Amino acid sequence: MEFKTFVFYFLSAILVFAGLRVITSRNPVHAALYLVLAFFTASGVWMLLQAEFLAIALVLVYVGAVMVLFLFVVMMLDINLDRLREGFWSYLPLGAIIGLLMVAEMGLVLGGNYLGLLESSVRQATTEDSNVQAIGRLMFTEYVYPFELASVILLVGIIAAVALTQRAKRTNKSVSPSQQVFVKARDRVRVLQMPAEKSD
Amino acid sequence: MMVDALQGLLQGLFGSLFPLVWTVLKIVLIIAPLLLAVAYLTFWERKVIGWMQVRIGPNRVGPWGLIQPIADGLKLLLKEVVIPTGSDKSVFLLAPMFAFAPALAAWAVIPFNDTLVLANVNASLLYIMSITSIGVYGIILSGWASNSKYAFLGGMRSAAQMISYEVAMGLALVVVLMVSNSLNLGDIVKGQGRGYFAEHGLGFLSWNWLPLLPMFVVYLVAIVAETNRAPFDLAEGESEIVGFHVEYSGMAFAVFFLAEYANMILVSTLTSTLFLGGWLSPVGFLPDGILWLFLKISAVLFVFLWIRATFPRYRYDQIMRLGWKVFIPLCLIWLVVVGTWMMSPLNIWK
To answer: Which of B55, B91, B222, B330 has the fewest CB within 10 Å, making it most exposed?
Structure first.
């Protein structure tokens, strides 16, 4: 067996195990940590495909930022595990349908070559251009409108989130920093002169 | 050459396993001096702060106190690792490793001179950013796994601080890679060796710190905040606020400590590479070499210690304000300024 094949199966085994543990783990924080492991190994698999930019971006964005915030939320929630497990059977049909749909979609994508759905095969990385340059060039030429549109949507999301948190009436007593820096010592402290008492 | 002889010997000895052995040997050659440097950085810190406060600093263990870090390490090694009741044991012990491992893994792509680099990857800057962003897990997990409200709140606070400053740091790096036209650290250093001043023998004026001075300042402050060092060291402000590692003791605590100092050395190396010309010599008549890199790293590390001895601790809301409301807008504006500069006829980075 070639070494690369061995690495692929090794990473895949970890990935499948981590994916299973995400949904079977009883503790939500553990589940989130297994998801981190899954992202990390998935990035290893992408690295094997020589998609180095995507692999690093996956770690940078999902492991480094998204999952940290996710963990923040999961850790702060007061989760009652028994309550969470209630209604498993009533949700099962809906979950099963969604799961089957996803399997069908994946089958279409992965079997696309076989079924003749895809016109072009996946473009291989060229040796003279680095991954980053190739993606950057495509992003700012061929896909510039979708790219800009996505960024505008994200910007709207950011502003909406900020606006939502700022809508409530201000209850804290924070002072504006510009006022703070102009404070002088004599506004706050009064130095009293007192004659020393004589000790007798 | 001796290296060639050794290479030949090992090739004969291990046969097809030779590349593996050779790489492991190179990794050891990076990690072992690094750990030694971490130990003596703690010693140097105590000495420098001592001198700045007109004290002598550690001076009892060995000549001039030189064995002090070894004694400290031994002491921590012999202490009991207390695991609090109700804590999540596996995550509790995993957290220090999460903090320490990224600080070591990032060294894989650091170039020491134009040929001496473990892995010459094209996207090495991105690799470093993504690997170092994992370090935050050590903080957040240790806070959660301790099963203590204080550690949890401390972990949240430190993690929020690190994530905030990562944004400013990343934007500063975007400007650097824009002018370097590369994500490869080696190419970024080589790019700093070109320019008007470098041709006239004044190489240090061609390095990125001068044309990108605002970004250099932002980066310097951001790395101090990112490593949880004074004046942003809320994590260990023991007198007024508690940090994420209050429940840790013995070697588990020592690993957090090691991670902090290893991260300091790592970010100092990055500063030297990205803004201070890496292995390049500051003046034309002296040859380039690895020694310059070590000198620059030491200088940046000294700034870390100097800052710690000089400034009072920031309040948490002041830290967050500085990161979000001062640095990020500054970086965004400077990004546009440099972009315009590069498109104008005055472009100096051709």
So the answer is: B55
**Closest residue of chain B to A128, computed from CA coordinates:** B122
What's the confidence (pLDDT) of residue A118?
Answer: 57
Query: Averaged over B159-164, what is the pLDDT?
Result: 90
Which residue reads 């932002």 in tokens? Answer: B218
Task: Find the angle CA(B63)-CA(B67)-CA(B70) to the nearest 5 degrees.
Answer: 175
User: What pLDDT sits at residue A123?
Assistant: 57
Supply the pLDDT for residue B6: 80
Q: From B167, which residue of chain A is nearest by alpha-carbon distance?
A: A65
**A117: confidence class by pLDDT, cuts 50, 70, 90:** low
pTM for this model (two decimals): 0.89
Which of B91, B122, B137 minimises the CB distance to A130? B122
Does A63 contact B166 at a Cβ distance shorter than 8 Å? Answer: no
**CA-to-CA dists, residue B261 to A57, B134, B174, B258, angstroms:** 27, 16, 25, 5
pLDDT of residue A178: 83
Which chain A residues have a beta carbon less than 8 Å from that of B140?
Answer: 68, 71-72, 75
A59 vs B contacts (CB less than 8 Å): 130-131, 133-134
- What is the full DSSP assignment across A104-143? HHHHHHHTHHHHT--SSPPPPPPSSS-HHHHHHHHHHTTT
Residue A131 to residues A3, A50, A148, B125, B192: CA-CA distances in angstroms? 23, 8, 21, 14, 23
In this structure, are residues A6 and A43 in contact, taking their beta carbons and an 8 Å threshold?
A: no
Dihedral sign for Cα atoms in the order B336, B341, B344, B350: negative
- For residue A26, the number of C-alpha atoms closer than 13 Å in the C-beta half-sphere is 4
Quote ipTM for the complex.
0.88
**Residue in B126, B163, B183 closest to A65 by CB:** B163
